[in-house]
Write a structure and sequence with these properties.
The chain has six helices and two strands, in the order H-H-H-H-H-E-H-E. By secondary structure, the protein is mostly helical.
Length: about 120
């Protein structure tokens, strides 16, 4: 099978995100993302706030890799940040415009939103 044939079987970022958000692990990350976005929004000190900063704080404080035994071999890919932002704005409409987003491109097949870690770092 050549590369273009293999790509036909890959899931889009949106499909992988939808599967992630359906898991307890994904729901917990999304709740944390929404909670932080609402905290920054409610302060009223910024017109907009970077979803990358919110995810950076989650990565730093939440320790995604080690908190849950079933997620030991996974990390969140940067491709997921846009989807967490859009999910937060669907759940909390007051966040629309506060979390800047770009228009998503055509529905392309892409790499997985969560990717396996190849090696454990000692």
């Amino acid at each position: 099978m050549n590369d273009s044939q293999y790509q036909l079987f890959e899931k889009t970022d949106q499909e992988v995100f939808d599967e992630l958000i359906a898991t307890p692990y994904g729901k917990e990350i999304a709740e944390k993302f929404i909670k932080l976005a609402m905290r920054f929004w409610s302060r009223g000190t910024h017109k907009t706030y970077s979803p990358w900063c919110i995810m950076g704080k989650i990565r730093c404080d939440f320790d995604l890799k080690n908190k849950k035994p079933d997620t030991e071999n996974y990390r969140i890919n940067n491709n997921s940040i846009a989807y967490f932002s859009r999910h937060a704005m669907r759940k909390r409409p007051e966040l629309k415009g506060f979390l800047p987003t770009r228009e998503l491109g055509k529905k392309k097949k892409r790499h997985a939103v969560i990717v396996p870690i190849q090696e454990k770092i000692a």
